[in-house]
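Objective 1b: paired records.
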Amino acid sequence: MASTAAEAKGEGKAARRLRLGPGMISGLEATPLIAILGFFFLLPILMIAVVSFWDYDFAGLYPDFLTMNYEETLGSWVTWKTYLNTLKYTVIVWALTAVIGFWVAYFLAFHIRTTTMQMVLFLVCTVPFLTSNIIRMISWIPVLGRNGLVNSTLIEMGLIPAPIEWLLYSEFAVVLAMVHLNTLFMVTPIFNTLMRIDRSLIEAARDAGASGWQILWNVILPLAKPGIAIGSIFVVTLVMADFSTVQIMSGGQSASVALMMRNQMSLLQYPAAAANAVVLLVVVLLMVAAILRVVDIRKEL
């Protein structure tokens, strides 16, 4: 009996020694996610940062620690001009998608009464995403081209004597295609935020004598800020990293940072492209940080 009691006492001590605290349990549960993010996200970024300091020539890459790539990137007026051009596209596309996305989400959330019809119309908005971005982008070419649908219609109606040249292969075409490709990324988070607004708040404002515009400005917009911020992050990151739209829709007449990196990689200038990628990453993170400083999105996550 004494030996049995001693064994039970020993097992109890071992169990207490093996008992894990809440912090340790949470760490173990997060280990798979940390491993996946580390391997597929942090490791590639680390490799890009390492390669950005390497030397290179037409024959190959040479591991080294040189600041030459960053000096050439940040010391070139072409790079600064390209960044400014990319930021211009980003600001214009963000503004247009924010306005269009908010009103589409507002219509779905407050003017469509039944949940079924809301979901049906929302799914209609997502139908274009069943095809590739490239296909949706180049579909504008027969619409905006010199002999395209828009020009042909305007000429037949007698509104213009000759085709409008700037509709295609111009900055207008680039912005139009980007807005088309990215508006849904603004609609979705704003719609999700508007659907969470307590309708009693709107009724209370209306009972207090507020007009429709006052309700929109003082009640709905402040409560929709988290959704607008999330959509802004999506749009900003996607536009800053877009190169195919700029290349195709501008006809090679405009440039972006991502397109510049793509051209460097086609010339096997991988360290220079890696340096540009690091600079672009820093710029995008600063823009995202600025958005997060203005709006707290934690309530939406």
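Objective 1b, second protein:
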Amino acid sequence: METYTLRTAGADLVYDVRRPSPTDDGRPPLLMIGQPMDAAGFAALAARFPERTVVTYDPRGLGRSVREDGRVDHTPEIQAEDVHAVVEALGGGPVEMFASSGGAVTALAVVARYPDDVTTLVAHEPPLITLTPDGPAAVRARARVLEAYEKRGWGAGMAAFVAMTSWEGEFTEAFFAQPDADPAAFGMPAGDDGSREDPLLSDRSWAISSYRPDAEAITAAATRVVIAAGEESEGVQTGRTSVATAGLLDLAVTTFPSHHGGFLDGEFGYPGKPDEFGHRLREVLDGAS
């Protein structure tokens, strides 16, 4: 693996390139992106593609990528520019892309703005909460996570986030009538270190979950777009946002193994099924539905 730093006007973007030996069969690079997950989260999945050139990167302000634009928010438009810059640095594209969570939102913005950059996009569980039928209630639930985080710190915020993302079905008054989630019930610390900069729990990434993709531009692009969702995500928030995103683009949802982090091994806590996930991703990239 080789690591590079791409200096842009607003950030120093760090990305990694894993090249096979011997060289691959002429397929374009496979770019894997997330948000707020950085490159480290894709190590297990990248290892399942030893025959491919796999590229991972840290979004600006996350991991090793240092931002110099004076901002702390994370927006799909800015991140799309960064991904385009990485594709240009790789030789101008096109690439195949696997994008998960907030990275899937960024990837949809890339296809809308730079359709020649991506041949196939597998967008895994984009958390576009305002697209769901209960969008206003989902926004209210998101605000509840922020409130817990601001009042009581990381453990309380993360417990509220887990309670929100594991709720099945629409956010009814029954959801809001629940008591505050207990961090201890999820094995999380109850203490407060005073930090309020977490990109997942603060409002710094709200522009991502509130984003509305340019459906007209995406459907007009030559890029093959696949909206993917884990089989364990059916009925919970990111499964429902995947269905809503697919509906916006007049697509069906493609089922993948496991859950929102289905490509992760046990290194990051709740493990997925990286072997099965990698096999399914290879099938889909090769044209399977």
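The longest helix spans residues 135-152. The mean pLDDT is 95.
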